[in-house]
Write a structure and sequence with these properties.
By secondary structure, the protein is of the alpha+beta class. It has two helices and three strands; from the N terminus they run H-E-E-E-H. It has one domain. Strand 2 and strand 3 form a beta hairpin. It is elongated. It starts with 6 loop residues before the first helix and ends with a helix. The relative contact order is 0.20.
Length: 78
């Protein structure tokens, strides 16, 4: 993934993967890279993906994993 995406491009990737773009957590050089933040429309939880791994498929995978975890937790509460 290109590390020079602008905000509109990041938002487009997130939305194509099914998320709602929120913004970014800025990088700390030598410590953490830029994290792209987005919301799951199903659970309304905030998720993040490092910029270097930002793809439509990665957003879909992260959403599916998070949504499944919420569904499992809800089932356990019953």
């Amino acid at each position: 993934m290109c590390l020079s995406l602008n905000e509109a491009e990041m938002s487009s990737i997130v939305e194509a993967g099914g998320g709602k773009y929120v913004g970014v957590l800025k990088e700390i050089p030598g410590r953490i890279e830029l994290i792209v933040l987005f919301i799951s429309p199903q659970t309304r939880s905030t998720l993040g993906i490092p910029m270097s791994r930002l793809t439509v498929a990665a957003v879909r995978d992260q959403l599916a994993e998070s949504n499944a975890a919420f569904a499992e937790a809800s089932a356990d509460d019953k």
